[in-house]
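Agenda item 2: phosphoenolpyruvate complex prediction
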Amino acid sequence: MKYVIAANWKMNKTISETRDFLKTFIPMVKGIADVDIVIAPPFTALAAAAEELKGSTVALSAQDMFWEERGAYTGEVAPGMLLDAGCSHVIIGHSERRQYFHEDDAVVNKKITAAHRAGLKVIFCVGESLEEREAGKTFEVIQREVEKGLANVSPDNLVLAYEPIWAIGTGKTASAEQAQEVHAFIRKVLVGLYGSPAEGLRILYGGSVTPENVNTLMACKDVHGALVGGASMKPESFINIVSFKKEN
Ligand code: PEP
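Presented output:
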């Protein structure tokens, strides 16, 4: 399975900072053909990023979108607008969207459905909070998020990301055992939903991934890539993650 390494810049980087990053980063990835690399800048920098990425193998992603195609939705961005800006991917259901913008499973499901209808590839995030983990509810939460988020959704153009909320931006990474345990569980839920096509779905890990811990995490059987926040902001750091070596 080809691994995916995706950068989520969140609400960071102006247009010129985005161009500067890509001017340094794109030459660094020449010759890397065995990993799908995706970069998700803020909306305002997407079109400029698309210009910089022309001719490169690095894919462009948005961090969110609305589910309607057009209309009176002040402040929102439609799937077709992302395509127009040069995106091939969109991240849906990130825990920061769920936490700060109150996106529930039904909203996430509508967004995934609309993204697929438009032809976008979806990086669909799930993950439990520290409170839920400590209450022994990790599997229950993950099962609900996966099943509700993916109701009537095709397994095509779909990548999942397991992001334990307690590990995002905190410097606390899930151990390889913790990650593998949940990834294997997600795989089981996906097989329940899709049958054998689920075996081919890639499940990324996200949560304080760094050049130092990436090799160990990528060695887990059911981990097929990473969604990276903080450590994707500098080209030197992100290229070290993209060029991970699987430990055996
Ligand atoms: C994220 O934003 O998806 C993420 C995993 O962030 P960080 O790598 O900073 O924990």
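Discussion summary: The domain at 3-242 is CATH 3.20.20.70 (TIM Barrel).
Owner for follow-up: CH.
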